[in-house]
Amino acid sequence: MNNYWLCFLFIARFFYSGLANKDIGTNPAIEFDDLESSDSWLPAWMSWTPTSQQKVREAEKNLLDYVETESVGFFVNIGKVNGEECRVWTRRFGSAGSEVPLVMVHGMGAGLAMFALNFDSLASNRLVYAIDLPGFGRSSRINFSSNSTEVESQYTIIIEQWRKILGLQNMNLLGHSFGGYLTGLYALQYPQNINLLVLADPWGMTEKPEDWKPRRKIPEWAKALGSVLINFNPLWGLRASGPAGPWLVSRMRPDLMRKYEDLLGVGNTTLISEYLFHCNAQDPTGEAAFHSLMTGFGWPSNPLLPRLSGLDRSVQMKVFYGSKSWMTHLEEEDFIDAGVEAAVDVEYIEDSGHHVYADQYKDFNEALNSCLMKHDRDATFI
After folding, report:
1. Strand 30-32 relative to strand 84-93: parallel, antiparallel, unpaired?
2. pLDDT tens string 80-125
3. What is the C-alpha separation between 19 and 38, in angstroms, rounded?
4. How many degrees, rounded to 5, is the angle at CA 163 between CA 168 and CA 29?
5. Which of 136, 233, 293, 298 has the smallest set of CB atoms within 10 Å of its CB?
6. What's the DSSP call for residue 224?
7. Among 208, 201, 197, which residue's Cα sits nearest to residue 318?
8. CA 45, CA 246: separation in Å to the nearest integer?
């Protein structure tokens, strides 16, 4: 009898997984991954910055080869944004079931493969979608408006069109850093599509305090240089470094690479620096969009926290912070004081920094899975 039921469950799992793939495959707005030619007419070796969309593809694959959960990658053509055709690179992990799917949105200067430490755990009992935001990773490098309000609207529409095309009636929406800022904006406009909103060490919550001071005294020469560099996109130096880019990433962020040693092995963490380089050596339209939303060195021109007072009370919100993060730390009381009426639960992951999903990834995965399962109980999934 037990063998019979095991066989039945295996066939059912296979059937629903295949059905979901069929639904995607028959959607005209979905384009499956093909070998792409470089978006430059120059061969990579002839360019000062040796990169191409094909190299981004290869760098992502090299990372995701270490993820055990099978995934399928595809482009979602959402139509025109700011007059340009826009395709959102998407990966889906796991098999379809009764649980509400999870959608993961990366932060500034990153891509979906940075969640490589999370996919196996999070997709063990639900579908997980991860996207490259347009302007980053493998998605279209469309030129966003220079107007901050229009940039916010464009990203919000992109996420909604993506959801519509994939037919997600209800979703758990997670955003890290800049992705948290954007998912918060989305929840303000489309609360009916949110089962649980998860902000992971979100950027852009509060304005720069009047009494804010840097932790270390900044030399006068650095202040003068900063007044010039503030007019450039955040990662312009990476592209200016040309062929030294991957080495520069590894030298600047060895801490980030070490976070992935459990997955990749000590000798393979350069896969992270290679991926980040090729993600960010492309046309920096996403950086330009981010730059239009900030003031000074990384502060938001229109903070999210005060606006969350308009969040529909039906939205459930979970906020994760790294206990050692350099981001502005908030408590549940801060949301209440800001007039947020939606339910908010704030949790700190010990010994984690800004990359809270990677620093203590096992603790993060466990905490997020527990939260998702709790909210699944009362959710209606169609």
Report:
1. unpaired
2. 999 999 999 999 999 888 899 999 999 998 999 999 999 999 999 9
3. 33
4. 110
5. 298
6. H
7. 197
8. 14
